[in-house]
Each structure stands twice: as C-alpha cells, then as structure tokens.
C-alpha cells in the first residue's frame, strides 16, 4: 500500500512507476490549473479538488496497469515465444494495448 490511505501502489512489471510525490505534484498541478480558468468555479475547497484529482489519476493509472498486463498476457499466450524488445513484440504490444483501451472506451 502507498502512503495514501487505501491506495494501492501503481506498479507493473516493466512499466513506469509513479511515486506518491509525483502523483501529488500532478494532482496539485491539475487543481492549480483549474483554479486559473475563469470559467471554472470550485464548489469545494482547493484541497478537496486536489484529492479528487488524485483519486481520478490513481484510477486511470490502475486501469493502465491492467491494460498493460492484458497486452503482455496476450503476447505470452502466443504459440511461440516472442522476445520482449523485439520489433514483433513491440508491434503486438501496441496492437493489444490499443485493443484493451478500446474495450474500456478510453
């Protein structure tokens, strides 16, 4: 578990890991950017907005981990071994990754 109460670590094999600090910085940036837009009025305080931004980002990153795992599983289930890092692996990964994204409607 990460430092945020109940939030799982956002990690997957061979994927980028996002630290709590970076995730907090990104959530702050989202809240600050929204605050600068004249057409945006906060109904809650900025900290609540930041926390909700962090929850949304965490959810998206967890979905990305699932998409990555599904794409990797599809490649691993091929009849023959396809070495990771090979051109064929990269092509299949992009294809399967995009297929998974489309399934989720993202």
Key words describing this protein structure:
mainly alpha; disordered N terminus; 106 residues; 3 helices
Cα end-to-end separation: 26 Å
Helix content: 55-70%
Number of helices: 3
Mean pLDDT: 86
Give the strand tally. 0
What are the secondary-structure elements, in order, as H or E?
A: HHH
Whole-number radius of gyration?
Answer: 18 Å
Instruction: Give the overall form.
Output: elongated
What is the strand content?
under 5%
Q: Which structural category fits the helices and strands?
A: mainly alpha
> Could you give a short account of the major beta sheet?
none
Please characterize this protein's 3D structure.
The protein contains 3 helices and no strands. The chain has 106 residues and is mainly alpha-helical. Helix 1 crosses helix 2 and helix 2 packs across helix 3. 11% of the residues are buried. The N terminus is likely disordered.
Overview in brief:
The protein contains three helices and no strands. The chain has 106 residues and is mainly α.
Please describe the topology of this protein.
Blueprint: H1 20-36, H2 46-76, H3 87-104
Helix pairs in contact: 1-2, 2-3
């Amino acid at each position: 578990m990460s430092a945020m109460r109940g939030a799982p670590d956002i990690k997957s094999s061979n994927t980028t890991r996002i630290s709590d600090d970076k995730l907090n910085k990104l959530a702050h940036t989202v809240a600050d950017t929204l605050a600068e837009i004249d057409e945006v009025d906060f109904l809650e305080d900025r900290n609540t907005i930041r926390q909700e931004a962090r929850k949304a980002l965490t959810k998206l990153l967890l979905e990305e981990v699932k998409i990555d795992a599904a794409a990797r599983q599809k490649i691993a289930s091929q009849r023959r071994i396809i070495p990771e890092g090979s051109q064929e692996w990269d092509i299949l990964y992009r294809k399967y990754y995009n297929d998974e994204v489309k399934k989720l409607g993202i």
